[in-house]
Amino acid sequence: TVVDPLRISVIGTGYLGATHAVCMAELGFEVIGVDVDPGKIKRLTAGEVPFFEPGLEELLRKNLESGRLSFTTSLADAASAADVHFVCVGTPQHPESNSADMRYVDAAVSGLIAGGLRPGSLVVGKSTVPAGTAARLAAWLSEQAPGVELAWNPEFLREGFAVDDTLRPDRLVFGVAPGGNAEATLHRVYASVIAAGTPVVTVDYPTAELVKVAANAFLATKISFINAMAEVCEVTGADVTHLSKAISYDTRIGGRFLHAGLGFGGGCLPKDIRAFQARATELGAGQAVAFLAEVDAINLRRRTRTVTLATEALGGDVTGKKVAVLGAAFKPNSDDIRDSPALAVADTLRKAGATVAVYDPAAIPNAQRAYPEIIYADNAVDAATGAHIVLHLTEWTEFRELAPNALTAVVAARTIIDGRNTLNPAQWRAAGWTYHALGRP
Ligand code: UGA
User: Which amino acids are annotated catalytic?
Assistant: First the structure.
């Protein structure tokens, strides 16, 4: 295969950037990944992925060995070494305003400018940003680095499927300014992905920025819709899992992201819907997305409902009771605990006076750093030993396959709350357990 001589830099090596850097090398490019955290760069250089992502480490090692992939803490090296620079840094929620904190994006661009971007090179934003960011950065570049173009190419990968989503995305979105070479350059970068049949939507900057937040807002709304139906199921005696299945046969509705339970968390959906509201309000369109406040509220009420269910099952007072929590990551196949519904519930019960023991197949080290007061167990049986209630809060396959009898002998009381609706109620009840769930009798 002929390797395209384009050289690529990827700024930020978190869940998004590390995956993007590895996948760009896999496509045949010479890639340099940059991060301000020397610990991360050291581990990546040693062939170690600093987070849990199935399949990524093998691909990292393969591409380090090929010599196409390297990592550095020097943004200046990347600025001068590459033709295309992907900005993949975080845009976390601002603690006071709910809007996206742009300091890392701005630092990446100013570092690239200071490092001596070459005329003719392209800066490509991938981070999720408020509408108007690309235009602002393009103006900044044209002043400080004449001849350097900017494009916006939002990323839609899911944690846990990051490699596949990057190499075989549902679509590519290219946000570009009229004229210039950005669109042609992006077609070169993604040539093999496009050749495999991936649709490309080429748009202006604000549309590209909005596609990303609109997609996440829609997904969050779908989850909160079914969780709102779960609330109504709870007061009518209906079963939301059957309701969801029945409406999903209508192909206009579909069944994906219609799984009722403890709701969404993670580093994206919650903060993105809040930042979207903040930005739309600034621009005078707050009313158009006011429903997202309700989406957020429905989502957070599921956490409260789970705490209430547990408290009631424990006789109205959790003080001195032992609670076993299965799951800490915000979703299975991830070690990410950002805005994890499972840990939010665990910590609320701990603060109310319960002794809480958590087990998760991958997220314990991260959970331990963020919630040091919680007790952590090495497996589900250890977590459940002596427990007055078991809460299933992240739906790892390991928990679905757990036989109730594995826990029966060690618990103090056979009560389980299935916060994700993936356990088999009949199986747990047959084993003598009191089984509660969200949105089902
Ligand atoms: C999400 C989007 O799915 C990606 O397309 C997007 O690129 C990414 O955010 C981002 O903006 O970077 P991710 O945060 O990895 O990806 O997680 P999802 O798989 O979307 O799950 C989000 C949350 O929704 C999880 O807590 C999950 O447990 C919950 N969920 C999902 C439900 O409660 N019910 C469902 O039916 C589906």
Answer: 268
Predicted pLDDT at 2: 46
Could you say which of 296, 315, 336 is where a domain stops?
296
* CATH number (domain holding residue 423): 3.40.50.720
> For residue 257, how far is its CA from the centre of ligand 1 (angstroms)?
8
The pLDDT value recorded for residue 3 is 59
Instruction: Using the atom order of ligand 1, give the atom closest to the CA of residue 160.
Output: 15
- Helix, strand or coil, per DSSP, at residue 99: coil
Q: Determine the Cα–Cα distance for residues 10 and 104; give it in Å rounded to an integer.
A: 14
Tens digits of per-residue pLDDT, 1-25?
A: 445 789 999 999 999 999 999 999 9
* ipTM surpassing 0.90: yes
Question: CA angle, corner 359, sides to 358 and 361, nearest 5?
Answer: 150
Same domain, yes or no: 273 and 331: no
Question: Which residue's C-alpha comes closest to atom 20 of ligand 1?
Answer: 158
Report how far ligand 1's centroid is from the alpha carbon of 160 (Å): 10
Instruction: Region of 237 please: left (phi>0), alpha (psi -120 to 50) or beta.
Output: left
List of the chain residues with pLDDT < 70:
1-3
- Cα 158 to middle of ligand 1, angstroms: 7
Query: Which pLDDT score, from 0 to 100, does residue 1 have?
Result: 45
Question: Residue 291: CB partners within 8 Å, gap ≥ 6?
Answer: 221
Angle (CA) 365-370-374 rounded to 5° is 80
